[in-house]
Amino acid sequence: MKIKNTMVLLFSSAVLGSTLMVTNPQVNPVIHADQAVSTVANTTLPDGHYVVPVRYQKENTNDQSTMTQYMGTQVTIDIVNGQAKLTIPAKNKTTADMLKKFTVSGKTAVRQGNNFVVTGIPANGLSKVIKGHVDVELPGVIKESQPVDLQLTLPKPAPDQNKSAEDAAKKQSEAEQRAADAKAKSEAEQKAADAKAKSEAEKQAADAKAKSEAEKKAADAKAKSESTKKQNSKKQSSKKSTSQKKQSSKKNTSKKSTSNKSQSKKTNSKKSTSNKVKEVTYTARYVKSGTSTTSTMNQYMKPSATMYQRNGDQYVILHAAGPQQNKMIQSMTLEGKASTERRGNDFYFNLGKRNLQTKKQVTLNGRVHVELPGIISERQPFSIKLGGRHEKNNVRQTNLPTGKAKAAPNEGRGTSSTSVAQGATTPMTTPAAAVAVTNGGVSTAKDSYYNYAAQYLKQGTSQSSVMQNYMLNAAHVEINGSMAKVTIFAKDAKSAQMITNLRLGGQTAHRSGNGFTFTIAKSALSSIITGHVDVSIPGVFSESQPFSLRLTPGFSGAPAGGSASNDASADPMSAAFSGGNANMMSAMMNSNAPAASLMTNQAGNNKNNNNNNHSKQNNGSKQANNADNIQDADPAAQAANKQKSDMNNTFLSIGGIISAVLGYIGTTLGWALFKG
């Protein structure tokens, strides 16, 4: 039970951490037209007290920020001598407690209860986007620091009272004149209609009277004629009556039969017509939302789409590229509507009372949730451009879905991505040589072998890249003269196989087992090294993204991956069985020997440093310990140290492998016992 609780806590941390990075469903504050104006104009409020709507947006965008979940929808403004005091409320005490620091326009807000108060804001700047920054922390669960933009909707300026009165009087006069004209016209039309109705009624009465008299005369003549015939043919009446009855029966039967056949034909015709639906096919191209750049969705979907109409509703069918891609797509929405049905590899959408299929070109917007457990999980917006219209007339389709339109669920609207390297929306850059910066990781070293901590960053930033989830946090460096051979390691074989091409410092890295080796100038070790990675799962997806690598000297401890959700220290058993960062078996068994020595070289180097320092102290040397584990520069001493270190490393590596195997077996047995 303790292990399960730990796993739940870790999963919750990952979910809450990613929540601040995605865009939530937009919930715009309601602003009445007579109460607000556009905030684009530079509106300066006079001194006074105001309560105005506020919108929290992602930095430099119009996209709604996750801050909306934590804050109230209105801000109180008090202006004195052109200086404004903003009182910004949190939704409740819980969300207020999560905000550890909140700055607005460079000024730190002071918390008062559930409110955050900022003073000294120029009143003439309130109509512009106000820059802010927030630190959010929920101890043991989440800790984030994010920028946020505040957009205030200011009140309208006071209207000109005199002009308003004149306009109102003028409008009232015009309205009264229009009413009088309409009334006069209505009365004239009513009189004409009454006269016409009276004339028609009199004519109808006369016609009805004449018709009634004519019918009465005809009836009398007919009755008289029938009476005469009955008297003259009394004997034959019985036979004639029988004959007439038979003929009448035959005629009635024939009429009924003909009527039934006609009705049957009409019914069948109606059924046939109802089963015939006009289908329209289009060529389909999926692009990134709001751009003309081809989206990764093109890898999952066929380049075609189908439309048809039923009961006035517009239906659209999108086709997955195959069963494997269809299985990866967890959900999809189109124009804010969820799919009404999935059949095979097809997604059916009801877009409501719209007539789109008559257009030659159509652009639709949607969102997709793609997931391959343990590898990729993305929620992305996309647009689909339809063209090449082709119409199929009266195609008989008796089984096309007619489900009602369904609104899309309130899912996250952002771009949460666990694909390798940077998110899919980050612009790609061409790999370049390492660029020197002031906070580089490694200083110039002498010829020797070293272990370093490896940190993978989003290119051009100090933020951790998702690449860190797939790589170990240790690197092996071999310095030879002015060149350095660097080996970095994937966290397991599955991650290594996904990487089809890797470039660092302008050089292509060569893979051996789970290791990737490249050679750069020794001077580049003091810089942040730029890289580029191509990742692919054949038949599923492929991606190409930039990243940066920072090396820091003096790595110690067991190598691990960078994902917080797979931290082996929190739960070694679950991490071992989930393929997380604690799974070091693949790296230790790698034929690229440096992987096996990552856990042992540090200990050997530290021991050799102690021996060297002890020897130097005995000889009267006052050299300090080398923080970078650099060996004695003397060639003979270096060779002896290397030979001794290699022997120690060999025995320690063998012992490490044996220990790892025994640990893996023990963990497996422990997990089996735990499961019952």
From TrEMBL:
Its main location: other. Pfam families: NEAT (PF05031). The keyword Iron-sulfur does not apply. GO terms for cellular component: cell envelope. Gene3D superfamilies: 2.60.40.1850. Residues 598-623 have a biased composition (Low complexity). It comes from the Bacteria. The keyword Transmembrane helix applies. It is found in: Cell envelope. Residues 1-17 form the signal peptide. Residues 44-146 form the NEAT domain. This is NEAT domain-containing protein. It comes from Weissella minor. Residues 413-422 have a biased composition (Polar residues). Keywords: Membrane, Signal, Transmembrane, Transmembrane helix. The chain crosses the membrane at residues 651-674. CDD domains: NEAT (cd06920). Residues 163-229 have a biased composition (Basic and acidic residues). Residues 152-277, 391-424, 598-628 are annotated as: Disordered.
